[in-house]
Amino acid sequence: MSHDLLIKHIEKNAQLSKLEQEVFCSFFHTKSIERKEFLLQQGQVCKFEGFVTEGCFRVFTLDKKGNENTLYFAVKDWWLMDIDSFMNQIPSDLNIEAIEDSKILLINRQDKLALYNSLPVAEKIFRVMFQKGLVSWQRRLVRNHCLTAKERYLHFIQTYPEISSKLTDKQIAGYLGIRHEFLSKIKKSIK
Fold first, then answer.
1. What is the pLDDT of residues 142-164, one digit of tens each?
2. Which end of the chain is more exposed for a tag (fewer CB within 10 A), N or C?
3. pTM of the prediction?
């Protein structure tokens, strides 16, 4: 079943019966995304929440100079969306691009609301996952303000080795908030 990973993920937050699992999963549909394909582009309204079952995605913005600033990467067992655009139905400031051929389970806004009505525990599941995501963002902000670029790079490659091996130096530099050339200097100083 293509939803097995989703079931394992949600059961970290709540135990569901087999029937509840089936109801929960029935609101998600699978989508295959090819490498370099966009799931969302700046200016579009985000109409989905996604759960990655295979592959890797990059969530980034483009500034006025055309520089890419990566907010995060999403790999297998991670959630993916623009929460502001999704909740408020406004144009997104984000781009979501597949770094490799990927598969994702999607739920749209209308189906998510219907899921809440069909399975009240789903609201708790999403609330707990949202809180955990917020903690992760807070920790990243603290690291960005307290650690040097070298320390941030070392933390990234140690914490996410499966992601860092899939990325270009330019993508990693965009995530760390540094120039590509500076990342090259950091990597040379480590070797």
1. 999 999 999 999 999 998 888 88
2. C
3. 0.89
